[in-house]
Design brief:
There is one protein chain. The protein folds into 2 domains: 76 residues, Defensin A-like, CATH 3.30.30; 30 residues, no CATH class. It has 4 helices and 7 strands; from the N terminus they run H-E-E-H-H-E-E-H-E-E-E. Strand 1 and strand 2 form a beta hairpin. It starts with a helix and ends with a strand. Bound molecules: zinc ion. The site of zinc ion has 8 residues, from loops. Zinc ion binds next to loops.
C-alpha cells in the first residue's frame, strides 16, 4: 500500500464528526412499568443533563403524553399509564427542541429567563433570545 492509499484508508476510517462538533446527548429514558404506572428511573440524571427544573420538564412530558405524573421520594418520575421508552424519548426530544436548543445556532447552551415579563430561551453561545411555547 502506498502512502496515498494509506491516507485514503485513514480518512475513510475516521468517524463522522457532526457539523458543529457538539452533539448534545440526552440520556435515554430508563422506564419500566409498575402496575398502571410508568416509572422513569433516570429522570434526575436527565434533568441534570438538560440543566432544567423538574417542574417544567415534568409538566411538558405530562402534556405531551396526555397523562398525569408526579415525582416520587427517590426523584423518579411516575407517569400514569404505560409508556414505552421510545414514546418518552420522543416527548423529551420535543422538550429539547423547544426549551433547550437555541433556535438560532442550535446549541444547547441556553437558559430560560424572564425578559420584560415574558419567558424566553436565552442562548449563552450566540446571545439569541427565542420565544418558548406555553406548556
Ligand atoms: Zn444560539
Amino acid at each position: 500500500m502506498n502512502y496515498e492509499e494509506q491516507l485514503d484508508r485513514a480518512m475513510a476510517e475516521t468517524p463522522d464528526i457532526s457539523e458543529d462538533g457538539s452533539r448534545f446527548e440526552v440520556p435515554d429514558p430508563d422506564v419500566r412499568p409498575e402496575g398502571n404506572v410508568t416509572v422513569y428511573e433516570n429522570f434526575q440524571e436527565t434533568l441534570d443533563r438538560l440543566d432544567r427544573d423538574e417542574e417544567g420538564v415534568l409538566k411538558f412530558i405530562q402534556t405531551d403524553l396526555g397523562t398525569s405524573a408526579n415525582i416520587d421520594e427517590k426523584g423518579r418520575a411516575r407517569l400514569t399509564g404505560n409508556f414505552r421508552e421510545r414514546r418518552v424519548a420522543d416527548a423529551l426530544e420535543s422538550y429539547v427542541d423547544s426549551f433547550v436548543r437555541c433556535q438560532e445556532c442550535d446549541l444547547p447552551d441556553t437558559r430560560i429567563v424572564e425578559e420584560q415579563g415574558t419567558t424566553v430561551l436565552k442562548c449563552d453561545a450566540c446571545g439569541a433570545l427565542s420565544p418558548v411555547p406555553d406548556i
